[in-house]
Every structure is written in C-alpha cells, then in structure tokens.
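Support request, please re-run this one:
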Amino acid sequence: MAAPSGATGCEDFAEFQELLRVMRTIDDRIVHELNTTIPTASFVGKVDPGQTCKELYESLMDAHTKRERIIKNCIAQTSSVVKTLREEREKAQDDVALLKQLRKEQTKLKLMQSELNVEEVVNDRSWKVFNERCRIHYKPPK
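Re-run finished. Output below.
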C-alpha cells in the first residue's frame, strides 16, 4: 500500500478506499489502545495518563487531518475530470465511450463524496471514546 502522502490513487476507487481503510486503523483500534495505555486506578502510578492521552490526541488529529485532506483532494481531482468530460461531451454528443467514461467518473465522484460522511462518523466515534477515557487526564487545546 502506498504511503499516505500527496500522491494518492484517486483514479482507482478501490485503491482510494484501501488507503482510507489502512489510515483508519488508529480509529478502529482506539478502544484497545485506551484500554492498554490508560491505567485503571490500581495501576495509576506506573503510567502517565496525561501524556498518553496527549500523544493519542495528537495522533488522532494528525490522522483525521491527513484523511480529510486526501478525500478532499481526490474529490477535487475527480470533479475536474468530470468537468472536462462534460465539456468534451458537449462537443461530441454521439460519442458513447465518452458518455460511459463520464458516468463512471460521476459515480466515482459520488462515492468519494460519501467517504466524507463516513469520515465524519468515524471521527465522531473516535472522539467520543477518547473523551470518555481521557477527559480527566488531558484537556485538548481549543
């Protein structure tokens, strides 16, 4: 899998989804992460929960920001392709292959836009769990 950088596979939706799936690992494992790093009352002296929560907060913020940037970048790229194909379609209305390509790109654009909604749900869930476990140990900056 490609590294989460600016060079994202926006052309292939399956690759795009796989990248997001890999990048959402931190959110998928947040409960486990908190259970193993935030101590119960009997182990409170062995670990600094404030520092642990701060590091987890920074990791979550970084992951959420990167994923949102990638999703919005791919939406912008695909929107540009759709716009170009629409303009070409106006000039060549009888081109069936062009129409097929336009429909394919429009579908991909809608799927990418729906990933923004998925991202919102994933982020909300992670912040809810984070706040339940870390609110007494760490107060994030506003």
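The domain at 13-134 is CATH 1.20.58 (Methane Monooxygenase Hydroxylase; Chain G, domain 1). The radius of gyration is 21 Å.
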